[in-house]
Write a structure and sequence with these properties.
The chain is globular and about 45 Å long. The protein contains 8 helices and no strands. Bound molecules: zinc ion. Zinc ion binds next to helix 7.
Length: 194
């Protein structure tokens, strides 16, 4: 999970490297959430605490982004006010939570790892903050690409049952740690070059 979070944040920061700090914060936060949210569907295949940790790791940074927006970068709140607003946020937030709760009852690596799941969650984020949707989806895509590398099939085309797998490595392999290390170095470098 830390690999997914780090890769997501790294992707978000990379996509916003030439943009103002507000966008980097939005990009990093939403791409990180997009990077981890899919695995809220682990169910029986993972630890019981995993969905709680993923929920916290998604809501926490979102709350921090809001507080930072109020306190340090009012541009974030202004952007939200101009492009979204309370009604859209409630609608998007409700769709997002309902989709996750529904996805948690589906098998691991099915709905929440599919194009359909990405489209619905991406749409929900678009309602909350349009500019964030692309970064969020980039995070989700990075998650699915990482999952495709190993042996457990991903149901990309859910509700079709056929799973896809590139069979390049095992889940808990050294590869995962190398990618984690690479993205942490990437995050530090991207923050440094800003
Ligand atoms: Zn996954």
């Amino acid at each position: 999970m830390s690999t997914h979070a780090a890769v997501g944040a790294c992707v978000g920061l990379a996509l916003t490297v030439n943009q103002p700090a507000e966008y980097a914060l939005i990009g990093g936060t939403f791409a990180m959430i997009g990077g981890i949210i899919s695995d809220i569907d682990v169910g029986e295949t993972g630890k019981k605490t995993t969905p709680i940790i993923i929920g916290g790791l998604s809501l926490g940074p979102f709350a921090i982004l809001f507080i930072v927006g109020v306190g340090v970068f009012p541009g974030i709140i202004e952007l939200w006010r101009l492009s979204s607003g309370l009604l859209r946020t409630i609608a998007g937030g409700t769709i997002f939570c309902a989709t996750c709760l529904w996805g948690m009852r589906k098998p691991h690596r099915s709905f929440l790892h599919s194009f359909l799941g990405m489209a619905i969650l991406g749409g929900a984020v678009y309602l909350v903050l349009p500019v964030a949707a692309g970064y969020f989806l980039a995070g989700m895509v990075s998650h699915v690409i990482l999952d495709l590398l190993n042996y457990r099939p991903v149901q990309l085309f859910y509700p079709l049952e056929k799973g896809v797998s590139l069979r390049l490595c095992y889940s808990k392999s050294r590869v995962s740690n190398v990618i984690l290390l690479g993205s942490v170095v990437g995050i530090v470098a991207l923050l440094f070059v800003r």
